[in-house]
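From the shared-data thread, chain only:
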Amino acid sequence: VETAYAAYESARGAVRPDDAKIEAARKAWEAAMTEADQYVTNDEFSQVVDRAGGVGMNAFTASDMTAYHFSMPSNRFELWAYLESERFLDPVFREFYKERDVVQEERRFRTESTPTGRLFEQFLSTAFIAHPYGVPTIGWMSDLQSFSATDAEKFFKTYYVPNNMVIAIVGDVDPKTAWPIVERYFGRLPKAPAPPALRTVEPRQNAERTVVMREAAQPFYFEGYHRPAVSHADDATYNVISMLLSSGRTSRLYRSLVRDKKIAVQASGFSGFPGDKYPNLFTLIAVPTPGNTAASMADPIRAEIERLKNEDIPADELNSVKTRVKANLLRQLDSNSGLALQLAEAHLIRGDWRALFREVENIDRVTPADIRRVAAATFTPNNRTVAMIESTRSAPAARPAGAAPAQGGAQ
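Structure, as tokens:
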């Protein structure tokens, strides 16, 4: 299959492409895949897990990591260790190109077919001009249409190596008996050089950047500001600001834009976007109500930001926000799977799983002065990237703030 695919790619990339040669190479490649299909047992891995009582087998890729996870009965622990280590010891990329087609379709569905998906991609690529955070996690379509199983194998051998891997095991397992099993199976993985370190650092933004998409779609507003990585001493302060602006119906953005002014159906802010291992974005979003434009979201949002810079947050509001930040953290730890994911992520990104449990202490230390200082340093025009959808559809006139809907007639 790989030999035939290399010939097909060579024909497509020729200086003077020959359509007949390209078509012949494509047919030869597809014939090779058809022949290979006879050796495939579909879903064999997941069937073994299912028969052993496993549930929730899945994987995901985010900006900072790829994670594989599932739950097994504790008396099947050794089977888990065998299966999961075997996956990395001797991977076979069966039906690779069929799976590649699935990812292409996912990109079409999530990004290319939705205005907000396209806006999101433009927003990131504008905010990050050097760092890989500006590249969509799923990749560009041209990459998805060209990279091969051979390329994937090289990537695997570079990054899917023991010294780049974190395993978190949570549940009814005795460490004294579990650890020898982990060593026995995962100790089979061959040593390999550490993956190359990321050397590119996003340069300091020194001018406001704006992206405007004009489409017959719902108006939408993004506003982002560069902030330090999760390892920075001010990370807890950013988390408190995020909760202050956007945690539920008591948050400042909701009360101002949604409840009082009635100019948005949604308004919130969140930190650590699109990842948080490296310097990232504090992002604010708003979805206007009918009759309001995306651009009209800017001033009300920035008015709330100016309050953060110039007014000390009242003690009762700060204490309430801190309580909600801590409660949100603890809720993520209320299941075996949630705790395992948080432990693995903390160790992978912060270098120490214990950092997860120091977050509560860090949040408690945040002061009103910290919030004003961080807000003043972060939320500046030259550090701002704006992306919005300007709707080209004719819209009904905006209803005056506080006005009741018309009574009677069809609703």
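Residues 404-411 have pLDDT under 50 and may be disordered.
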